[in-house]
Design brief:
Layout (H helix, E strand, L loop, with lengths): L9 H13 L5 E5 L6 H13 L12 H7 L6 E3 L10 H9 L12 E5 L7 H12 L5 E7 L7 H6 L1 E4 L5 H12 L3 H10 L4 H9 L1 H16 L5 H12 L5 H21 L11 H10 L2 H19 L4 H14 L2
Parallel strand pairs: 1-4, 1-5, 2-3, 3-4
């Protein structure tokens, strides 16, 4: 996994390259970014670069260490597993990290531990790994992947170097989808916009029927919400709660929808809309909604996104959002 194969994230890639060449890699990292943003790919590329026998800006890809990392068979790259889907237990951290890291590397100069969805560690597990992060052996490198670093203990955050994923520029992602997946222009534009620069999310949209069904369902809700009664609002809320794992993508879609409404209200033109196939509905909403109302709707979505990241009760959060989207005029 070469750094050059990863779209965007130049700041993080350059940090890793320089740290490896200078021998100044941190013993503990937090890589924060949305689901499917490429956190795991970056971690594997970093691990491969650390262990590569011929590293020079990029892992060589042909030495024994590189080949083993590529095939996930290198004994000094450990992917922490957990039995329960929503929990990383203290015993799993103790056995897979705390105790294992006491054993020196088998083949390389480093042992790299990659913990995906690290925010699923319970408090006991986080306290257990904290001791290792505070006093790691010189060869140990721990990489915590998360979509929200604030779910980790402050003591862990203060002892790790935090690197944040950034959205890939829309035009760059659009070109990538057209070149790599032969997606036509207007679809690539739509996928690149809806994914908000998250490469994995954009790629998944190409063939994901479930994603398309979700997209259509949310659009229908946005079309109907102004005239919805209390029962419909309640049903919308329950529908969104059932999609709680996909709320970041849903909030992205809502943002793009209201930006299209604002664009049409400003220009009266539909040819630049992301949701061109919904131009009639967007025109009707734009004509009935003031600039202030559209702006307040966008603010409400951003507030709901923030609330989600700060663990505000999901029912309260969605109820407030839907009522504001209905009432903003």
């Amino acid at each position: 996994m070469r750094f050059s194969q990863i779209l965007g994230q130049e700041k993080i890639k350059n940090h890793f390259r320089q740290a490896i060449k200078a021998g100044t890699s941190s013993h503990a990292y937090i890589i924060e970014g949305e689901k499917s943003s490429g956190k795991m790919m970056l971690s594997v590329a970093f691990a491969q670069s650390l262990l590569c026998e011929n590293f020079d800006e990029e892992p060589c890809g042909i030495c024994p260490a590189c080949l083993k990392v590529e095939s996930k068979s290198h004994p000094d790259v450990i992917y922490v597993n957990h039995a329960k889907p929503n929990l990383i237990s203290v015993e799993e951290i103790r056995t897979q990290v705390d105790q294992d890291i006491l054993i020196k590397p088998y083949e390389a100069a480093h042992k790299v531990y990659i913990i995906d969805e690290s925010d699923k560690m319970n408090e006991q597990a986080q306290n257990a790994i904290l001791k290792t992060i505070e006093e790691p052996p010189s060869y140990g490198v721990i990489i915590l992947l998360t979509d929200n670093a604030n779910k980790l203990l402050p003591t862990i955050r203060s002892r790790c170097l935090k690197l944040s994923m950034t959205p890939v520029e829309k035009n760059v992602l659009k070109k990538y989808l057209m070149d790599a997946y032969e997606v036509v222009d207007y679809q690539a534009e739509s996928f690149a916009s809806y994914s908000q620069g998250v490469v994995g999310a954009a790629v998944n949209m190409i063939s994901a029927n479930e994603e398309n069904e979700r997209r259509e369902s949310i659009i229908r809700m946005l079309v109907q919400i102004k005239n919805a009664d209390a029962a419909q609002i309640f049903q919308f809320e329950k529908d969104l709660e059932s999609e709680k794992d996909h709320l970041p993508e849903i909030f992205n879609l809502m943002t793009i929808w209201y930006r299209d409404v604002l664009l049409y209200k400003s220009t009266g033109q539909s040819h630049k809309l992301i949701f061109m196939d919904e131009a009639k509905a967007i025109k009707e909403i734009a004509e009935k909604t003031s600039y202030h109302g559209i702006s307040e709707s966008l603010k409400a979505i951003e507030k709901a996104r923030y609330n989600m990241r700060t663990n505000v009760n999901i029912t309260v959060n969605l109820d407030l959002l839907l009522r504001l989207l209905k009432e903003n005029k």
